[in-house]
Write a structure and sequence with these properties.
Blueprint lengths: L1 H6 L2 H11 L3 E2 H6 L5 H13 L3 E6 L2 E6 L2 H11 L10 H21 L5 H5 L1
Helix pairs in contact: 2-4
Length: about 120
């Protein structure tokens, strides 16, 4: 699983966490780590190849954005190894509801409709 291999490195996990808060330029990402810019670029390339980040050019900068879809796929895979929380009553049903809400938001974003909850937050 390419996603697991990409997340095996602690710097890459920190980059994913950083991008979880919002998009960032490669230079801003590099400033947060005590490694060289080329090393950060290599980490970003691995994350991009794993499908965890996407990038776009904005002027003279490259902006990176976290793609949560591979993380959701990984989460579904990990569900097979978790205790039987889904069958544990009301808390499990709330977890299922939360999962469905996230899935709906993701589908609306993918369709280009955005999410009213996120725009007002």
């Amino acid at each position: 699983m390419l996603v697991l291999a990409a997340l095996a490195d602690p710097v890459r996990r920190q980059i994913v966490e950083l991008l979880g808060a919002g998009e960032s330029t490669a230079g801003a990402i590099a400033e947060r780590f005590p490694v060289s810019r080329p090393a950060v670029s290599r980490h970003l390339r691995v994350l991009r190849e794993a499908g965890l980040v996407t990038s776009r050019v904005a002027g003279q900068h490259r902006v990176y954005v976290l793609d949560r879809a591979p993380l959701a796929e990984l989460d579904r895979w990990l569900d097979g190894f978790r205790p039987l929380r889904a069958a544990a009553g009301p808390a499990g049903r709330l977890d299922a509801l939360d999962t469905e809400m996230h899935r709906g938001r993701r589908q609306r974003r993918a369709a280009g409709g955005g999410d009213a909850d996120e725009r007002t937050a």
